[in-house]
Write a structure and sequence with these properties.
The protein is of the alpha+beta class. It is built from 2 helices and 9 strands, in the order E-E-H-E-E-E-E-E-H-E-E. The strands form 2 sheets. The chain has a 7-stranded mixed beta sheet, covered by helices on one side. It has a two-stranded antiparallel ribbon with strand order 8-9. It is globular, with a radius of gyration of 17 Å.
Length: 167
């Protein structure tokens, strides 16, 4: 008896919507902008980590806004390694961020575009956020709202070839 191969899925797997800052530009508020397809961290995080440049090394710690993401365990097994998940409260009106930690290599902060954002709003945010500007509700582009993540005292762990300045 032979088995026919599974038919290809009618829906292609969604691409990771990620834009990273150019290398070597210091210091910067955002190292990249990520537009996940949903708030399901268990589904979206492995796709994000797989799309990161190999120069970022093995990401072993991820901090997310507790209120913005679905329930998730304190640790996940991703790409043959354990990734520790930290869910921290973010005080409004801070923008949603994901912080990635790689031992010996550094820390990277990604601005997160809401999965519910329209194509137009997401494209505008992704195009301007890496320049240190964000669009307001009226569409006007203005400097981002300061957050705890931008406070130099809030830097966690060692820094290296990432775009984080030593804090």
């Amino acid at each position: 008896m032979t088995t026919a191969p599974d038919a290809p899925s009618a829906l292609p797997l969604p691409l990771v919507r990620l834009r990273l800052a150019p290398r070597g530009v210091l210091p910067r508020r955002n190292d990249g902008v990520w537009w996940p397809h949903s708030r399901d961290l268990l589904t979206q995080l492995p796709k994000l980590l797989a799309a990161l440049p190999s120069a970022w090394g093995d990401i072993v710690g991820v901090t997310v806004d507790a209120a913005a993401w679905s329930a998730a365990p304190g640790r996940m097994f991703v790409a043959n390694q354990v990734v520790r998940l930290n869910k921290a409260p973010v005080s409004p009106p801070a923008l949603d961020r994901v912080t990635l930690l790689s031992p010996g290599l550094g820390r990277w902060d990604l601005l997160v575009v809401s999965p519910d954002a329209t194509e137009e709003a997401a494209a505008l945010l992704m195009a301007t956020a890496l320049e240190g500007r964000v669009p307001g509700a009226d569409g006007e582009v203005r400097p981002p709202v300061p957050t705890a993540a931008t406070d130099p005292r809030s830097h966690v762990g060692p820094t290296g070839p990432g775009t984080r300045a030593r804090g």
